[in-house]
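User: Here's a chain of 341 residues. Predict its fold as tokens.
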Amino acid sequence: MQHRALGDSGLQVSAITFGNWLTGGRPEDAGDCIRAALDAGITTFDTADVYGAPEFGAGETVLGDALAGRRREGLVIATKVCLPTGPGRNDRGLSRKHITESVTASLRRLRTDHIDLYQAHRHDPSTPLDETMAAFADLHRHGKIGYLGVSEWTAAQITQAHALARELRIPLVASQPQYSMLWRVIDAEVTPACARLGISHMVFSPLAQGVLAGRYRPGRTAPDDSRAKHARGGRFVGRYISQAVLAAVERLRPIAVDHDATLAQLALAWVLANPQVASAIMGASRPAQIADNVKALDLTLDDATMTRIDAALTDPEHGDLVERDPAKTAKPFDVMPAWRW
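Assistant: Prediction complete.
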């Protein structure tokens, strides 16, 4: 397993991070997958207080249970705060109250006394950023969090937060955006800003919700066990399931074959070729997926291969199928649909 520095800090994260967004609520699946991730050399685990079913926090609970008894010093545990975890107005956002209460609950569920990377799950325009950063600084000084990150923040928001973090002497070193061959909205603004500020990406959905793994085929119905049929996953994967995009993914298959790789391995290798990416967050519903996908670390994609990939993602009728608009960065949490409340 490769390890890479997270931003300009001394923290090393595994190049593949295990994420338990959808598997968090099924202990019988998630526990086996987490143990398989450890066996594959993965040392970094990403979750959030909002992950899991039938109730929020289940993802953290499953992760904490699966990691119990492991050498804590050898692990990097990341979780998040912001999205709604209850019906009340203070059960969400980045106020001091919600951050303080959320981190206490996360520590209990994760069965640990500190969180290595604590991330603001979305930007919160309803709370002054000074209040948010001061709350994070207090947690850092008390040893409850080691490093700070953000997820799906714009370049301007990250730059403002980083300036406050420097004043407060807390290490803001990570950004967790969505990023894949098909979704490159961070390239124009967020990535240059992060490079300038010494912030690394830990990217989610590098397989575009399974589309880049060849999970869906042109002209065929989505498999019953796929994310497209999942109540929560379906609203994310739906943006990719067009006949033009699925046909483009089929054009990627010969490129993968030429590298003796699967489509998933090719997609992960493409993401990890970006020097600003410290780690790609990979979910799994079966342990075998993990052992297979980590082989992406053995792939090296040269310039000619990168050019072939871009050509495959261009459609004669629809043109460039890659989403590049920086305005497509996820909306702040207060305009997102709540999953339960």
